[in-house]
Specification:
The complex is a heterodimer of chains A (about 500) and B (about 375). With about 500 residues, chain A is of the alpha/beta class. Chain A folds into three domains: about 180 residues, 2-Layer Sandwich (Ribosomal Protein S5, domain 2); about 240 residues, P-loop containing nucleotide triphosphate hydrolases (Rossmann fold); about 70 residues, Helicase, Ruva Protein, domain 3 (Orthogonal Bundle). Helix content of chain A is about 40%, strand content about 15%. Chain A has 22 helices and 18 strands. Chain A starts with a strand and ends in a 10-residue tail after the last helix. Chain B is an alpha/beta fold. Chain B folds into three domains: about 70 residues, Orthogonal Bundle (DNA polymerase, domain 1), CATH 1.10.150; about 180 residues, Rossmann fold (3-Layer(aba) Sandwich); about 60 residues, Arc Repressor Mutant, subunit A (Orthogonal Bundle), CATH 1.10.10. Chain B contains 20 helices and twelve strands. In chain B, helix 11 runs parallel beside helix 12. Chain B is elongated, with a radius of gyration of 24 Å. Chain B starts with 5 loop residues before the first helix and ends with a strand. The chains are: A alpha/beta (about 500), B alpha/beta (about 375). The interface between A and B is large, with 46 and 36 residues.
């Protein structure tokens, strides 16, 4: 007999329907799965055989053929275990109901338990779009699935429960998610700018960066607090909007990084991968494509400590996401796009030994070495970083004498106001913040009066700034003016923006 | 003295390009009547006159065969490089007093007609204070018509050259490599400016790499070209101290700019002062020490007062807490009491006005 069960799979950020067809025919006992399955699916035979047996169903000693349609797309992962098992039970007439109202996903254990799988949130969204009545998901994934409204989310613990539910002998009430409550529970900041003493100019630079979503490069000796400061940036970014939360949660769901405890990403992600990370780890990819760190920090912060120590190729692949806000991974068989709209905060030492310009420890690097170290970051990449800020090491005395800082809450309010201004300016277009302005918008929105223009020319000339810093200064000064809630960019705004181009300056004669 | 003939110059270049003859060039010119004779000498003659082994003489002859003098001359001309020998009338007079190089390669004409020169030398890893002082001192001396000689290296040298170029005295850069080799590479712009507004000088043939052994020899030319030298910042092992030694040997005045007692880059300077070098605080000190005051009129600067007038009171408040000793921006904020968003802009404005300067690590110091 033949049975059909509907399931779905994720490719990139999108889902497609997978029709699981099970045919049981007379012949020598065999179990074949076709439809370009990967190893995990091939092995699902053993899980299904034991899982059904241990759930006290008889596993048919016949010729079983499973087809995963469409047959020309490579399928992967264990999430088809449950639909195949259900299909077999329908085909052997253990279950005599129609199951095409539901989308079924789940991995089986040898005991017949249903285990959690990746990508449940986008699959649930797909189920809703495909006008299904409900979706049957592993119990552990129920919370993330429940974020989608107007669809029945049926959490199941094991195979028997699934069959009983489908046959109507037990009733499992669909999980209703209360989004707002979850958000409340999940959004918290463990860090605050309140406990950062001194480093006034760095805090100010980070405030400007947050207000315009500018990328930042922090330069400072070891132990100056670069990581600590970067970690706190997410606490002053505007709160996430519903749309953003769902988008980020979807990515985390695909990456399999949600758990029963954390079913929603409601705070801006802060990712800090180690500098030995590979290209695929950073932008995503691999044999079974998976979102990389740039996508995991979507709508949040990607912090790259020891920036020049990253592999050259890894830094180069950052260019597309920094420019387009998404990353495209092309493989022989497919091409995927993951969103990657993040704020980059990079940190580096001023020189290879780390102590150039430090007051206490002497630096032993030759200018040549310093130059070499800095040139590891290519020009085009540097071009995408608007704000450079030097983070000096503070003496104990400075740290002890300084007062406590402003709280993140106060700073965030100012940031939010500046962001609102920007949103109104760009009028709901594709661009949402100053950092994303193209040359055309810079021309339109960063107008200077003649005095300010002269000042900028003078600054570039006298301070030995490179020509490429011109646009960056304009963008950043636009944000600084926004923080003052002023439509006009004034000389003081430009003057401050010039402060944030320290890597462009030739401090060595 | 009679100008040496074109043929002689041609063969002089030839001889200079043969390594084994080059480093005993003085002797070669001594024992042979003319460069031409040295060039065309037989193996036996070379061996006998120069007192060298068979092997070396053989090498010289082989090297000679490989050199096409006409092509070399064309190459030098196309690169705008002129050769002057100690018999030329343009050869700097001061240089003849020392164990001078018989042949020098030159780009830019200043070397032929400068009047007074002062060498300004110092550490390659100088502090902002040192570089600022070197720049200012050189600019002012240059404005008075004094040519500044230095080594076109990083740090103090570059600062001194840049300062001097902006005045009317110009600047001479003495290189430890061929004139076509830019070292350090970031000084390409400086090379171009020196060629235009001063001179680039080297005793090394084109293509010579900046080998470490070239630099001490280069230093003797820096002091040789000058009436005296000013050491701005030098650590205990700095090459600037070698220049100072040469200057003493050559009977030139050695002047020293003091630094912070604790600063490592001024240790060498302080040692020189202890040994009796003159301490320099201003241009006037240099002029006086070199007894140039009868020949050069010093115009006192009055710019300082003018600058003060244009400042707002916030700017003045910032200036009041700044000294030449670099101060961290946090300390400025703490002592001035204006919020960071304002101070950042003010610092840039003051820097553009040229009153303060930023140092690595977000430090600021007052330079006027």
């Amino acid at each position: 007999m033949i049975a059909e069960v509907e399931s779905a799979a994720v490719v990139g950020m999108d889902c497609y329907k997978v029709q699981v067809e099970v045919d049981i025919a007379q012949g020598l006992p065999a179990f074949n799965i076709v439809g370009l399955p990967d190893t995990a699916i091939q092995e699902s035979k053993e899980r299904i055989r034991s899982g059904t047996g241990n759930s006290e169903y008889e596993f048919p000693l016949k010729r079983i053929t499973v087809n995963l349609a469409p047959a020309d797309i490579r399928k992967e992962g264990p999430s088809f275990d449950l639909p195949i098992a259900v299909g077999i039970l329908i085909a052997t007439e253990k279950l005599r109901t129609n199951v095409d109202e539901y989308l079924i996903i789940g991995e089986l254990s040898l005991t017949g338990e249903v285990r959690k799988v990746k990508g449940v949130l986008p699959l649930t969204i797909y189920a809703k779009a495909a006008k299904k009545k409900g979706i049957i998901v592993p119990y552990e994934n129920a919370n993330e699935a429940s974020l989608v409204e107007e669809i029945e989310v049926i959490p199941v613990r094991n195979l028997r429960e699934t069959i009983d539910f489908l046959s109507g002998s037990i009733d499992i009430s669909p999980i209703e998610g209360s989004l707002n409550q979850i958000i409340e529970e999940e959004s918290w900041d463990e860090v605050d700018f309140y406990d950062v003493k001194a480093q006034y100019h760095v805090k100010r630079a980070l405030e400007v960066a947050s207000a315009g979503s500018h990328n930042v490069l922090m330069v400072g000796p070891p132990g100056s607090g670069k990581t600590m400061l970067a970690r706190r940036v997410s606490s002053i970014l505007p709160e996430m909007e519903m749309e953003e939360i769902l988008e980020v949660t979807k990515i985390y769901s695909i990456a399999g990084m949600l758990s029963k405890e954390v079913s929603l990403v409601a705070t801006r992600p802060f990712r800090s991968p180690h500098h030995t990370i590979s290209c695929a780890g950073l932008v995503g990819g691999g044999q079974n494509p998976r979102p990389g760190e740039v996508s995991l920090s979507h709508h949040g912060i990607l912090f790259l400590d020891e920036f020049p120590e990253f592999q050259k190729s890894a830094l180069q692949v950052l260019r597309q996401p920094l420019e387009d806000g998404c990353v495209t991974i092309s493989r022989a068989l497919m091409s995927l796009t993951y969103p990657a709209n993040f704020t980059l905060i990079a940190a580096m030492n001023p020189c290879p030994c780390g102590y150039l310009g430090d007051k206490v420890k002497e630096c032993h690097c030759t200018p040549n070495k310093v130059q070499q170290y800095r040139s590891k970051i290519s020009g085009p990449l540097m071009d995408r970083i608007d704000i450079h800020v030097e983070v000096p090491r503070l003496s104990r005395g400075d740290l002890l004498s300084a007062e406590k800082g402003e709280s993140s809450e106060t700073i965030r309010e100012r940031v939010q106001k500046a962001r609102n201004l920007q949103r109104r300016r760009f009028n709901g277009g594709k661009i949402k913040c100053n950092a994303r302005m193209g040359p055309r918008q810079v021309k339109e929105f960063c107008k200077l009066d003649s005095m300010a223009y002269d000042f900028l020319e003078q600054a570039i000339d006298k301070l030995g700034l490179s020509a490429r810093s011109y646009d960056r200064i304009l963008k950043v000064s636009r944000t600084i003016a926004d923080l003052r809630a002023s439509e006009m960019i004034e000389m003081t705004d430009l003057a401050e923006a010039v402060q944030y181009r320290s890597m462009d300056r030739d401090l060595i004669y | 003295m009679e100008e040496i003939s074109k043929t002689n110059k041609k063969y002089l270049l030839g001889v200079k390009l043969i390594p084994h003859l080059n480093w005993r060039l003085n002797k070669v010119l001594d024992v042979f009547d003319s460069p031409e004779q040295a060039w065309s000498a037989s193996e036996g003659e070379l061996k006998y006159r120069l007192d060298i082994s068979d092997k070396v003489a053989r090498k010289i002859v082989l090297a000679r065969k490989a050199i096409n003098i006409e092509a070399e001359i064309e190459k030098y001309q196309s690169l705008n490089v002129e050769m002057i020998s100690s018999e030329d009338k343009h050869y700097p007079k001061l240089l003849k007093e020392i164990s001078s190089p018989p042949v020098m390669f030159v780009r830019g004409g200043l070397i032929k007609n400068y009047e007074y020169a002062v060498g300004v030398v110092g550490s390659r890893r100088a502090s902002t204070y040192g570089k600022e002082f070197a720049y200012e001192l050189s600019r002012k001396l240059s404005d008075l018509g004094v040519t500044i000689v230095s080594g076109a290296a990083r740090g103090i040298d570059s600062a001194a050259h840049f300062g001097a170029i902006s005045g009317k005295g110009g600047s001479i850069g003495v290189l430890g490599c061929g004139l076509d080799v830019v070292y350090p590479p970031e000084n390409r712009k400086l090379y171009a400016e020196l060629e235009q507004k001063g001179s680039l000088v080297s005793e090394y043939a084109l293509g010579t790499q900046p080998l470490s052994q070239n630099f001490p020899a280069r230093n003797r030319i820096i002091s040789g070209l000058s009436e005296g030298i000013v050491v701005v910042e030098a650590s205990e092992k700095s090459g600037a101290l070698i220049t100072a030694d040469f200057a003493l040997e050559q009977g030139r005045e050695v002047m020293v700019v003091p630094g912070n007692v604790r600063s490592a880059v001024s240790k060498g300077c302080h040692k020189l002062i202890k040994q009796g070098a003159c301490l320099i605080e201003s241009v006037e000190d240099v002029i006086e020490n070199l007894q140039l005051d009868s020949k050069i009129k010093i115009v006192k600067e009055v710019a300082n007062a003018n600058v003060e007038l244009e400042l707002s009171c916030e700017e003045k408040a910032i200036l009041n807490c700044l000294e030449w000793e670099p101060k961290q921006v946090d300390q400025i904020v703490a002592s001035v009491g204006i919020e960071m968003s304002k101070i950042a802009g003010l610092l840039t404005i003051l820097e553009i006005k040229g009153i303060i300067k930023q140092d690595i690590g977000k430090n600021y110091l007052r330079v006027r």
